[in-house]
Amino acid sequence: MAENEKKTGGWRSNKWIRAAIPALLLHCSIGTVYCWSIFSQEIADYIGYTKSATEWAFSFAIFFLGMSAAFLGNVVEKDIHKSSLIATICFSVGMALTGFFIWFGGSHQHNPVALIGIYLSYGLIMGIGLGTGYLSPVKTLMLWFQDRKGLATGLAVAGFGAAKAIASPIMQWMLEHLGNGGIYKMFWILACVYFVMMFVGHLLLKKPDGWHEPQGKDAKPSIMQVLKTKPITNYIGIWVMFYINITCGLALISQEKAIVKCIGLASVVGIISTVSAVFNAGGRLGFSAWADTMKDRNTIYKLIFILSIAFTGLVMLTQGIKNGEGNILLVILVLALIFIVNAGYGGGFSNVPTLLSDHYGMGSISAIHGITLSAWAFAGLTGNQVATYIVNHSGEWIDHDGTQINPVGYQNVLYFTIALYIVALVLCLLLVKPTDKALEAKAAKKAAAGK
Asked: Which pTM value belongs to this model?
């Protein structure tokens, strides 16, 4: 009997089973929101609307992800079982309802009910599941992996980024083999699969036994009181540079396939998309694990912005997107830009919760992280939409092997992103103050040098 209890206690207190695995199950499920480009044209064709009309479903999903994280951060803080269950139900039900409205749209072409239904299902309902599902495991991971917080959160958030690389070929196969109406059948099948994955994650997810959340209204300070422990400009700097990193990432990533076609790699666009998704996931894990070795995690953001500015500037100076076809050096340079931006985009996500915990402590980290994710919400409405506007209103469209592309328009997007990256670097250097840990290390180094 005692031996059985010991064995049970072993898995019940195992940080991999109670934190890492459930985090991956949750994030690998909700991360498939980034597979939107795989099936967006099929949805548009099936319900009789333009791709640009259906595109708003993805923008709404990202917006409600950020806003639900901001408004439900306190729910996550108090009860991760409630929040992970909300995430499981909302994400899987939203996906199933998206399939229903696609089916309805196929039977009633050009019917606004189908389009609005997809906005509400994929955008609002799935968006709430995304926000709560994204937040739920993060604090738990940092509590279990106190010494390697960056590695732990990077592992989970890498799952969010890797979900696209894993799910994209599966979705493509389903679209090709499910026959007529395969697009809505795919959503129904995936809704069931992701419900099971997320529900198992929900059951396993658990905070360490030694951690007890303060109870009652006066048990912990308000979010504003916590933020005011540092100059408020410190938090504003973190929020804005996070927003800029996502906006620039989405601006380039949304045009990625077209840019790859511009440089003459249309035949391998799927492979490059997968490789860029791997860089996205690798940046989430690599940058955050690297940050664990640094005295100030803000150094990671400085590196991300400097690399992004350097490669964006090089592609601008060489007109790499416009002149890349047939020039191997320019092709490599453009691909390097795509991969660097993807890695920095992912790394920006994985480092935010640990950067915030270094500045403001663990007490209210889920709520503070949730409010910070509102930057993702607004970036979701601006990044790809601004890039699309620039492409549609500058340069000229040309035929490239039967596909319409606008090399000059894509090139002009870089002027927008490099300006924002420079602003982010300035904020990173001037507004975001060193953490107490970094100041202590600096003082110790100065004292040692003075001896």
From this structure: 0.84
